[in-house]
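REQUEST ID: PR-0412
SUBMITTED BY: lab tech R.K.
PRIORITY: routine
TASK: structure prediction, single protein chain
INPUT:
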Amino acid sequence: MQTTTVQHAPTSTPTFWIKWLTYTTEFTVLFGLFMVLAPGLTQQAFGLLIFQNTEQFAAFDPQATAYIELAHAVMGSVLVGWGALMFMLVRRLSAKDAKETCKLIAMSVLAWYVPDTAFSLYSGFWQNAVLNTSFVVLYAVPLLALRKHHK
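STATUS: complete
OUTPUT:
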């Protein structure tokens, strides 16, 4: 009588969650590019978000408007760089290093989220805290789901 041993494939990170993280990092890059390449639309979007008025920034002094445009472009550029780095981390995600990679992404997201959201709330711009929270959920859901696969 011949016995067969069943060999199990090494545990790998689920493709669904890796794809989710990949799309989220791509969205991060695209959102940043939008802020840099579409300053008028960015101001309208943030005007709507913060002031419930798409034309609010047009009412500001031209110098203030120019500075806000610069600030949005700088923030957008940082998002592009940050998103690109996280994209590369996710693309290299494997069962072997999943725990460490997810930890690095989570630490990075929290390092942005906590001070940005705290200051948004402190300064009375709770709408930005809501935007931040919706953004962080896009990262948190797959990172939490992947935790059970790399304990």
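NOTES: The chain has five helices and no strands.
REVIEWED BY: pending
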